[in-house]
Amino acid sequence: MIGMWGALAGGVVLLLVLLAWVQAEALSKDSHSDWGASGQEQGDRAESCSLEIVSQVFSARDSKFISGLESPGLENLFRRERTAVALHWVQETSAFIGKIMRRHLEASRLSADLEIAVEARIFLRYARLKLYCGILFVLIGLLGPQRLAGTALYAERFIQRIGEGLVEFQLAAQLRERDGSESP
Amino acid sequence: MSAMVKPLPVQEAYEDLLQRSLSRIPCDLGRLLYLASTRDYNTGNYHHDGLADRFSLKVARSALEIAHRQSFYKVAALSLEDLVRDLAAYLESSRENPEEFLRTWQRLEPYRIAIPMEVNPTVARLFASNVRLALAVLRLRRESSHSDR
Asked: Residue A139: helix, strand or coil by DSSP?
């Protein structure tokens, strides 16, 4: 009996997650989806999205300001607008992580002294970030962005650190490659 | 963005721009739109006669581009409440009919031209979305002040 109820509850949760995903997908492809897309592939961050901007996207202060105006229409508009921006940030971030990883794999292929443990650690970090993005995408669709500010800021900080680490790794790989080609 | 490193002549031109032109504009949104208006729609190059005369075409162009980018990030990071206040100040300084102004801005979305080239797409989205919301707030305030009378 408990097994049946458990399966039923699991099914409902799965259905809710799927609904949230579909809703989030629809919102992220709203009519203003052309912004910033011209000539820029997703994941091409011309400039980083600063922590200040990420906190602004997920800001509870703006939400309070809108609630204070006591207009249901405006509250709906705010929820729609902010959710769309937050979902766009998640998609852009996810694409950026993918790009970082591709670059890392390219750099690793050129590297003569690959360390399996280091590579495994990097891959796990990458997988964890991708998973975060997936969870954030669903949660934003379910709860709205305002309750997820902490998680979003954590992800952005983490990505910035990984990005910096990867740049150092690539520079080191290039130096090693140059040294290798110069030595007799 | 404020930590952007500027070569010395560009830095001088940038400060000149701040003192002579931008300080006269009473709000952040006004400064942003002014800077965006110095950009050629076809080429994306910036031009300011006075600044180019005092420095050089190239230096003036770089100073304008940096100022535009900084001004944009400043406005994009404003809280909604501050943006509404700023937009109201801009509306007042324009001396246009408020109804007409709000209707035109909501329909034509002229603020889209204020977005610099190659800016982070999330920031561009946040900016446009915030201006849409600020316009809706100002409209709501006007409607409720009319119905109170």
From this structure: helix
| Neighbour-count burial for B7-18, b at 16+ CB within 10 Å, e otherwise | eeebeebbebbe
Q: How many CB atoms lie within 10 A of CB A164?
A: 10
Secondary structure class of B39 (helix, strand, coil): strand
Q: Is B16 helix (H, G, I), strand (E, B) or coil?
A: helix
In the block, which residue shows the tokens 């690793």? Answer: A108
Return residues 77-136 of B near A (CB < 8 Å): 77, 79-81, 118-126, 128-129, 132-133, 136
pLDDT for B8-41, tens place per residue? 789 999 999 999 999 999 999 999 999 999 999 8
**Residue A112, class by beta-carbon neighbours within 10 Å (0-12 exposed, 13-18 middle, 19+ buried)?**
exposed
Length, in residues, of chain A: 184
CA distance A84 to B132: 13
Contact by Cβ (8 Å): B15, B51: no
Of the candidates B79, B106, B102, the residue with the CA atom closest to the CA atom of residue B92: B102
Q: Do A47 and B80 touch (CB under 8 A)?
A: no
pTM of the model: 0.80
Is residue A114 less than 8 Å (CB to CB) from chain B? no
B39 forms beta bridges with B46
